[in-house]
Amino acid sequence: MSVSLPALVDEASRYLDAERIADYCPNGLQVEGRGAVRRIVSGVTASQALLDVALEAGADLVLVHHGYFWKGEDACITGMKRRRLQTLLGNDISLLAYHLPLDVHPEVGNNVQLARRLGIRVEGPLEPGNPRTVGLLGRLERPCAAVEFARHVAEVLGREPLLVEGDGVVERVGWCTGGGQGYIDKAIAAGVDLYLTGEASEQTFHSARENGISFIAAGHHATERYGVQALGEYLAGHFGIEHLFIDCPNPV
């Protein structure tokens, strides 16, 4: 089975409603390869490591959360960028990338997918009315101590998170996958017991400690592995084609 590249791209963008979301990079087809897609290889970031493995796996299309052509980056095709694009163009492989649309989607989005794995019941957005806010609010299925929840996060994600332990039991949680540490103050204003994201900044510690909440930084890569997998599975099932997720380890 195969599907035409335009049909697959149109369906992915329609499903994610990508056109309505302003972003820091182009969402959708970033590099055009062969016209028919039989096998999708997905991964978090379109790194050289992922491209090399995708090539070996016989990918027609690479699907990622972190693609190329970010706002403000150097537009010259040199060095690392040249090597990556040469791998794709030289082997007729397409690159399909979705950033914020893949964070916020209610079914395959990174935040919803992470919540399902961690046992968090979604209640709503972290900042109602702001379409660019990708974080969510919810409650744990079973309230527990912050240390116990951090152990659960470590077991699910396969890496030890950074924990800043706050006051009391954790029940109400705010979270934003990836580099969402800047949303901690909005989470505090919403009355959470714990805020979880991928990364931490120096000031994040003080915001958590001085407001008495717990904070977990569980890894940018680790928290964003699940949305692209779910989108790949959706597209594979929709079109009857193959999908393979490849996790290229990243400690950050």
From TrEMBL:
It holds the Pfam family DUF34_NIF3. Keywords: Metal-binding. Belongs to the GTP cyclohydrolase I type 2/NIF3 family. GO terms for cellular component: cytoplasm. A divalent metal cation binds at H65, H66, D103, H220, E224. It comes from the Bacteria. It comes from Stutzerimonas kirkiae. This is GTP cyclohydrolase 1 type 2 homolog. GO terms for molecular function: metal ion binding. PANTHER family: GTP CYCLOHYDROLASE 1 TYPE 2 HOMOLOG, NGG1 INTERACTING FACTOR 3.
